[in-house]
Amino acid sequence: TLSTLPPPIEFNAQSLTYDRVTGEFGGQIVGVAGLGNIVVFVSTDLQTWVPVFTNPPVNGSVWFNHTMTPGEPARFYRASEQR
After folding, report:
1. Percentages helix, strand, coil for the chain, rounded to the nearest 5?
2. For an engineered disulfide with 26, which of 38, 43, 65, 74 has Cβ 3.0 to 4.6 Å away?
């Protein structure tokens, strides 16, 4: 029996945008296998992660956006496919 793992999901760096006026950050997540909800997490310290976006299972890619409040510290984002 041969089995393969789906490719890792990742942010499409060329699609990432930030609007300084509205505080909206967003972009495309690619490599989605349709195996579970897509969840985007945010952190200010790389230790505590809070979910800020959830999308039902899809194949291929999904777009997300997250509004940041002016004056907040820098944020880190990660995405996962929750099975």
Report:
1. 5, 55, 45
2. 65
Q: b/e per residue, 23-39, with b = 16+ CB within 10 A? A: eebbbbbbebbeeeebb
Q: In this structure, is the dihedral angle defined by the CA atoms of residues 49, 52, 57 and 59, taken in order, positive or negative?
A: negative
- Please give the distance of CA 36 from its chain centroid, rounded to a whole number: 14
Helix (H) or strand (E) holding 37: strand 37-43
Instruction: Give the residue carrying structure tokens 């952190």.
Output: 43
Q: Which residues contact 44 (CB under 8 A, 6 or more apart)?
A: 72, 73, 74, 75, 76
Place of tokens 């897509």: 38
pLDDT at 5 over 80: no
Phi (first) and psi of residue 48, to 5 degrees? -105, 120
